[in-house]
Amino acid sequence: MSELAILGGKKTRSEPFPWYNTMGEEERLAVDQVMRTGILSKFHGSWNDKFLGGPEIRAFEAEWCKRFDAKHSVSVNSNTSGLQAALGAINVGWGDEVIVSPYTMCVSATAPLVWNATPVFADIEPRTYNLDPESIRRKITSKTRAIVVVHIFGCPADMDPILEIAREYKLKVIEDCAQAPGATYKGRQVGTIGDIGVFSLNWHKHIHAGEGGVCTTNDDHLAERLQLIRNHAEAVVEFMRPGTEIPLENLIGFNFRMLELQAAIARVQIKRLDPEIALRRKYARLMEETLRRYPFMTVPEVPSDREHVYYTQAFQYDAAKAGVSRARFAAALRAELAPFQCFEDEGVAIGEGYIKPLYLMPLFQKRIAYKGGFPFTGRENYDRGICPVVEKMHFGTLMHHGFIKGSLSESDFKDVLAAFAKVCDRIGELKE
Ligand SMILES: *Cc1c(COP(=O)(O)O)cnc(C)c1O
After folding, report:
1. For residue 253, what pLDDT is reported?
2. N or C: more exposed end of the chain, with fewer CB within 10 A?
3. Residue range 316-374, pLDDT digits in tens
């Protein structure tokens, strides 16, 4: 085997990896059919037969319910708006606290702010990188109203103890399933375990429509509130059930509606999910087998009561054991591999850490969400050190790679494995 690429040797793989384009003939036909009708959206923000959207939206929502075992699916134009709608639907507001994860895409933590509630960060557990139920318990106060659980990287969070805490303190539970469509916990689909699940259909998720999202719930009342928040509730409530009082809290106007075109694409994409998950699991297992050979690598076992769907694959690197810094190790891996086609400017998909712990963002450090600093009181604690596990993972040990994608053939993925094995086998040569 040649010398490490970072030291002047030959790269393991120099040809860019094929990009993940899952838009096929079926999607094109589905879009064409909608285009022929000329009806790209059929939503109307008033109480009539268009309040719930057109035929593609309704068919898509029914099919989503079927695939994910949910009683109700409410499509929205992103997971971001879905989380905002979900927090509005469970009726959080000013003075309330919502427990969130610091290790996730930002909106899982900022959505409560839209309703003037404040996020409180709990720590993660190092096995799945998801919220640690014990840490959640420690963060509960008399103001806590809800928990936003994220099934990060595609691995379900430990829902039973979280639901137990929620029952004990009468909290609502929102599941952010953006990275975990089809993942299961004790045989149940994520997104149906808490009060509301939220999924993403943006272009880098397992299945997509460019942009889009879906909220799932088994609760009739919450489903109705989600539909109202999606589509100008304030103009609708008056006419919904004449003679009955509908509580108005959090029913102000948004337009979170998805297009018929997106629904048509998403209906085809649902069918692509299961083969995609199967392939990702296979590649993930191959990578685990490779990495487990090295004492400086930790690839936590996926707990046996869950099925991981691998939005990305994370592992932990022990720089002290390896005798080489994480930055240098990552640079050596990147040097062996190529970027994705069309995304050459993003570099090779090897990450050190994931997203900087969210409480370190200026929004929380300066406690300014709205003009005047509202809704923060100054009593919130967003100091460095509040979640030691996430800080250790992010700044110290966690790495992830973005090569688990259906666009890679088995031979493409073997190149990725070979690059990891080459750098790990020769790690001694990286010592400075
Ligand atoms: C992608 C993502 C979101 C946001 O999804 P959009 O559809 O882009 O708004 C939220 N949470 C997590 C965990 C995500 O990965």
Report:
1. 84
2. C
3. 999 999 999 999 999 999 999 999 998 889 999 999 999 999 999 999 999 999 999 99
User: What's the gap in Å between 246 CA and the centre of ligand 1?
Assistant: 31
Residue among 110, 124, 174, 179 whose CB has most ligand 1 atoms within 8 A, to mutate: 179
For residues 341, 343, 345, 350, the Cα torsion angle rounded to the nearest 10 degrees is -90
Confidence of residue 21 (pLDDT cuts 50, 70, 90): confident
Sheet containing strand 350-352, strands side by side? 297-298, 313-317, 398-401, 350-352
In testing the pocket of ligand 1, which one of 83, 107, 204, 208 has its CB within 8 Å of the most ligand atoms? 107
d(CA 24, CA 415): 26
Nearest ligand 1 atom to alpha carbon 80 = 9
- Please identify, by atom number, the ligand 1 atom nearest to the C-alpha of residue 204: 1
Which residues lie closer than 8 Å to 372 by C-beta, 6 or more apart?
A: none
CA of 211 to the centre of ligand 1 (A): 10
Quick one: average pLDDT of 48-74? 97
Task: Encode pLDDT of 78-123 as tens digits.
Answer: 999 999 999 999 999 999 999 999 999 999 999 999 999 999 999 9
Please determine, for residue 432, whether its predicted confidence score (pLDDT) is greater than 80. no
Residue 297 parent element (H or E): strand 297-298
Q: Which residues line ligand 1 (CB under 6 A)?
A: 78-80, 104-105, 107-108, 150, 176, 178-179, 200, 202, 213
Q: Rounded to an integer, what distance in angstroms lies between the CA atom of residue 319 and that of residue 345?
A: 28
Provide the pLDDT for residue 1: 58
Instruction: Give, in order, the Cα–Cα distances in Å from 203 to each of 5, 207, 210, 253, 291.
Output: 32, 8, 5, 27, 29
Q: Which of 209, 94, 212, 86 is nearest to 150 (CA)?
A: 86
Token digits for 368? 């300014």
Q: Please state the rounded mean pLDDT for residues 155-181.
A: 98
Residue 220 Cα to ligand 1 midpoint, Å, equals 25
Under a CB-based contact definition with an 8 Å cutoff, are residues 341 and 412 in contact? no
CA distances from 329 to 22, 300, 352, 416, 419 (A): 32, 20, 10, 15, 12
